[in-house]
Amino acid sequence: MTSKGPRLNGNSEANMTSRGPRLNGNSEVNMTLKGPSLNGNSEANMTSKGPRLNGNSAVNMTSRGPSLNGNSEANMTSKGPTLNGNSEVNMTSRGPTLNGNSEANMTSKGPRLNGNSAVNMTSKGPSQNGNSEANKTSKGPTLNGNSEVNMTSRGPTLNGNSEANMTSKGPRLNGNSAVNMTSKGPSQNGNSEANKTSKGPTLNGNSEVNMTSRGPTLNGNSAVVNSVLSFWLSAFF
User: Fold this and answer.
1) Where are the stretches annotated Disordered (predicted)?
2) Counted domains in the chain
């Protein structure tokens, strides 16, 4: 008998220590502050984080949650759970993220899909695929980036032309003042064919039926001019 316990065959096979009994020179069933150890590995060691297996923190409990095989596969963070090192189901202030893309992220503008503001809501209205296809502006809606149905102070526009624009002179068609109303009257196809003047109507740019102080003129000639001159000519000839 020794202070450490009995001896057998010169080996400390059954020696008792302050840590527990020893067998075959290995601390196979030694009791430590961390728990029992087996075959020199801390396979079932108890730590402040939880038990350890095969040197990995396979079922270690951390402040973030459990971890498996060194990956934070089920780790709980302030943002939510993570899987395989990706924030696939992470919850952020913007919403959930999937596969590192903000596919369903919620922003102050609305949700995002595939990195595009596909259904983003803006102060101008919704946008699709980066185009302001249904954007609402102070001028009205726009389609496909063209002001096809834009409402302006002049009226609606179609396909970038002021085909039905309303002006102070009247409506416009195809960029021509075809039915424009002026102080002189209506005009057609850029000609003053039916323009009303202080002299009377004009047709095809000629004063064919113009009324003057001398009377009507035809084709630019005074063919039917009534004046004193016609009286004197008839008297002499």
Assistant:
1) 1-219
2) 2
